[in-house]
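It would be a great kindness if you could assist me with a short task in structural biology. The matter concerns a single protein, recorded as an amino acid sequence and a row of backbone structure tokens. Kindly check, if you would, that the fold set down in the tokens agrees with what the sequence suggests. Thank you for your consideration; the sequence and its tokens are set out here:
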Amino acid sequence: MITTPKQGNRLLAGHPWCADNGVYTGRYPGDEAYLTWLRRLRPLAHNCLFAVAPDVVGDHLRTLTRSRNMLVKIRELGYPAAFVAQDGMQFSSWDPWDEIDCLFIGGGDEFKLSRDAAELVDVANSLGKWTHMGRVNSLRRYRYAAAIGCDSVDGTHLTFAPDQNLHEVLQWRQIVAAKSAQCRP
């Protein structure tokens, strides 16, 4: 489950979850409120796959400036820190790999589907970082995220008709897992 400070989702002990910041939806509460929310959830931090540092949608350089201090603060609270890769990010434009635990592929569709994003995921995976792609709402995008090596995805597909769409998303997992098994020697 991925949740944000403004969503109000109930997290279940023992289940993996992710802390998103709400920037994409325009509902980021501000740095102090975000950190306060993470402090409140500390008893569940051991099941948190990552907590996303604040970003600037579609702008790598501004995201780098915006998130740098928060990556440290998120880690100090005991959470794995995620940096959001945005439009314009390239392997050659990113050096602080030691400051993150997760690379979150954000940005626009063109960036998400770019060679740069795939290369970033490959490098992150080679360094043992968790990799995640946001806004995955179709089997096609799910397959793509899996093909480039993302460990997890999120999207709003389940928000609409969850009873029907949960079954569909679980089918996506089976399809991708079956294809992956066929490709193994």
Remarks:
- DSSP finds six helices and seven strands in the chain.
- The mean pLDDT is 92.
- The first strand starts at residue 2 and ends at 3.
